[in-house]
Amino acid sequence: MKSPVLLFLAVILPGLVAAQEFLTKEEFKEKVWDFELKGNEMQMKSDLPVVLDFYATWCGPCKLLEPELSRLQQEYEGKLNVYKIDVDAERELASFFGISAMPTMFFIRTDGSYTYILGYRTFDELKQMVDTFLFSTQRSLVSFMSEE
Hints:
Layout (H helix, E strand, L loop, with lengths): L3 H15 L2 E2 L2 H7 L3 H4 L11 E6 L4 H16 L5 E6 L4 H6 L7 E5 L5 E5 L4 H12 L7 H4 L3
Pfam families: Thioredoxin (PF00085)
Organism: Candidatus Enterocola intestinipullorum
Keywords: Disulfide bond, Electron transport, Redox-active center, Signal, Transport
């Protein structure tokens, strides 16, 4: 009989990891925003809102965040894209966004407006960010940010 841990690793884990897409600078420019052509004005290429996770492979909180973001991607499948950017491999993108701590997550609406948060967040906190900022007609994050 297979152990529950092996079953989880073999069946469930690959589905969770596959939910997030890892982007290079060139893929970012194709799928999200070509910042080199548009300057500082963010003009989204994506028809869906985007969550950008700036992470490092050596970052403990980033590793803890990965299943939370996978669950978020599954919860909003077809309504939201979750992309991961490795700050060590994509230094130019990290520098452009001013990343100095990981994880840093940007929540970007299709109109190009955005907000960001630093550090690990639970699934419920991430879901609240998505619902409050990306899918609400109100742009205020006062209620979410005041809870911290």
